[in-house]
Specification:
mainly beta; three-stranded mixed β-sheet; 3 helices; 14% helix
Protein backbone atom coordinates (compact mmCIF):
# COMPACT_ATOMS: atom_id res chain seq x y z
CA UNK A 1 0.00 0.00 0.00
CA UNK A 2 3.03 2.29 0.15
CA UNK A 3 2.51 2.77 -3.57
CA UNK A 4 -0.92 4.11 -2.82
CA UNK A 5 0.52 6.60 -0.34
CA UNK A 6 3.06 7.70 -2.93
CA UNK A 7 0.22 8.22 -5.39
CA UNK A 8 -1.55 10.45 -2.87
CA UNK A 9 1.63 12.45 -2.40
CA UNK A 10 2.05 12.79 -6.17
CA UNK A 11 -1.53 13.97 -6.48
CA UNK A 12 -0.90 16.55 -3.79
CA UNK A 13 2.19 17.89 -5.49
CA UNK A 14 0.52 17.95 -8.89
CA UNK A 15 -2.71 19.54 -7.74
CA UNK A 16 -1.93 22.82 -9.45
CA UNK A 17 -0.68 21.15 -12.62
CA UNK A 18 -3.04 21.29 -15.52
CA UNK A 19 -2.25 20.24 -19.04
CA UNK A 20 -4.79 21.02 -21.70
CA UNK A 21 -4.83 19.00 -24.90
CA UNK A 22 -6.67 19.61 -28.11
CA UNK A 23 -10.20 20.90 -27.73
CA UNK A 24 -12.62 18.04 -27.47
CA UNK A 25 -14.91 16.58 -24.86
CA UNK A 26 -15.57 17.23 -21.21
CA UNK A 27 -15.62 14.54 -18.57
CA UNK A 28 -17.88 15.26 -15.61
CA UNK A 29 -17.04 13.27 -12.48
CA UNK A 30 -19.64 13.12 -9.71
CA UNK A 31 -18.33 11.91 -6.36
CA UNK A 32 -20.75 10.26 -3.95
CA UNK A 33 -20.52 9.49 -0.24
CA UNK A 34 -18.31 12.41 0.72
CA UNK A 35 -18.35 11.73 4.47
CA UNK A 36 -16.06 14.29 6.07
CA UNK A 37 -16.69 17.97 5.49
CA UNK A 38 -13.12 19.04 6.11
CA UNK A 39 -9.85 18.93 4.22
CA UNK A 40 -9.44 18.79 0.47
CA UNK A 41 -10.78 16.43 -2.19
CA UNK A 42 -8.08 15.84 -4.80
CA UNK A 43 -8.89 14.35 -8.17
CA UNK A 44 -6.56 13.45 -11.03
CA UNK A 45 -7.14 12.26 -14.57
CA UNK A 46 -4.48 10.09 -16.20
CA UNK A 47 -4.31 8.80 -19.74
CA UNK A 48 -1.82 5.94 -19.56
CA UNK A 49 -0.53 3.00 -17.57
CA UNK A 50 2.50 5.16 -16.68
CA UNK A 51 0.25 7.90 -15.34
CA UNK A 52 -1.72 5.34 -13.38
CA UNK A 53 1.49 4.06 -11.80
CA UNK A 54 2.67 7.58 -10.93
CA UNK A 55 5.47 7.50 -13.50
CA UNK A 56 3.91 10.30 -15.58
CA UNK A 57 2.07 13.47 -14.63
CA UNK A 58 -1.72 13.44 -14.71
CA UNK A 59 -3.37 14.93 -17.79
CA UNK A 60 -5.31 17.19 -15.43
CA UNK A 61 -5.61 17.47 -11.68
CA UNK A 62 -7.71 19.64 -9.44
CA UNK A 63 -9.26 19.74 -6.01
CA UNK A 64 -11.75 21.47 -3.79
CA UNK A 65 -12.90 21.45 -0.18
CA UNK A 66 -15.94 19.22 0.37
CA UNK A 67 -19.36 20.82 0.52
CA UNK A 68 -22.02 18.22 1.20
CA UNK A 69 -22.28 14.54 0.44
CA UNK A 70 -21.59 14.94 -3.25
CA UNK A 71 -18.98 16.79 -5.30
CA UNK A 72 -18.70 17.43 -9.03
CA UNK A 73 -15.54 18.05 -11.04
CA UNK A 74 -15.25 18.67 -14.77
CA UNK A 75 -12.20 17.91 -16.89
CA UNK A 76 -12.27 19.94 -20.10
CA UNK A 77 -10.68 19.78 -23.54
CA UNK A 78 -10.06 16.04 -23.55
CA UNK A 79 -8.97 14.23 -26.67
CA UNK A 80 -10.84 11.00 -27.34
CA UNK A 81 -9.10 8.10 -25.67
CA UNK A 82 -8.61 6.01 -22.56
CA UNK A 83 -8.46 7.68 -19.16
CA UNK A 84 -8.71 6.78 -15.50
CA UNK A 85 -9.65 8.90 -12.50
CA UNK A 86 -8.08 8.77 -9.04
CA UNK A 87 -9.65 10.52 -6.07
CA UNK A 88 -8.32 11.06 -2.58
CA UNK A 89 -9.89 13.01 0.24
CA UNK A 90 -7.24 14.48 2.52
CA UNK A 91 -9.72 14.81 5.33
CA UNK A 92 -7.35 16.25 7.92
CA UNK A 93 -5.45 18.52 5.51
CA UNK A 94 -2.03 17.05 6.25
CA UNK A 95 -1.18 16.76 2.55
CA UNK A 96 -1.37 12.98 2.27
CA UNK A 97 -3.78 10.07 2.30
CA UNK A 98 -3.40 8.60 5.76
CA UNK A 99 -3.30 4.85 6.20
CA UNK A 100 -3.33 2.45 9.10
CA UNK A 101 -0.49 0.20 10.29
CA UNK A 102 -1.08 -2.33 7.52
CA UNK A 103 -1.23 0.34 4.84
CA UNK A 104 -4.99 0.49 4.32
CA UNK A 105 -6.23 4.04 3.68
CA UNK A 106 -8.21 5.53 6.56
CA UNK A 107 -9.29 8.54 4.52
CA UNK A 108 -11.70 8.36 1.60
CA UNK A 109 -10.57 7.46 -1.90
CA UNK A 110 -12.08 6.26 -5.14
CA UNK A 111 -11.40 5.31 -8.74
CA UNK A 112 -13.21 5.41 -12.05
CA UNK A 113 -15.37 2.30 -12.61
CA UNK A 114 -15.62 1.84 -8.82
CA UNK A 115 -13.72 -1.46 -8.88
CA UNK A 116 -14.42 -3.57 -5.76
CA UNK A 117 -10.92 -4.71 -4.95
CA UNK A 118 -8.90 -4.75 -1.73
CA UNK A 119 -5.91 -3.12 -3.40
CA UNK A 120 -5.32 -0.29 -5.82
CA UNK A 121 -7.12 -1.28 -9.02
CA UNK A 122 -5.18 -1.90 -12.18
CA UNK A 123 -5.21 0.54 -15.08
CA UNK A 124 -7.51 -1.86 -16.97
CA UNK A 125 -9.95 -2.04 -14.04
CA UNK A 126 -10.20 1.75 -13.76
CA UNK A 127 -9.87 2.68 -17.43
CA UNK A 128 -12.75 4.47 -19.13
CA UNK A 129 -13.16 5.57 -22.71
CA UNK A 130 -13.95 9.17 -23.57
CA UNK A 131 -15.11 9.82 -27.10
CA UNK A 132 -15.62 13.06 -28.98
CA UNK A 133 -18.80 13.80 -27.00
CA UNK A 134 -19.04 14.90 -23.39
CA UNK A 135 -19.16 12.07 -20.86
CA UNK A 136 -20.02 11.67 -17.19
CA UNK A 137 -19.09 9.10 -14.58
CA UNK A 138 -19.97 8.49 -10.94
CA UNK A 139 -17.42 7.52 -8.31
CA UNK A 140 -18.44 6.33 -4.87
CA UNK A 141 -15.81 7.13 -2.27
CA UNK A 142 -14.71 4.36 0.09
Amino acid sequence: MHRFARRAFLLSSLLATTTVGAQAAELTVVLHDVRAQAGLIKIALVDSQEGWEGKAAPVQATGAPPSGGQATFVFEDLKPGAYAVLVTHDENGNGKLDSNMIGMPIEAYGFSNNPRVMRKPTWDEARIEVGADDAAIDITLR
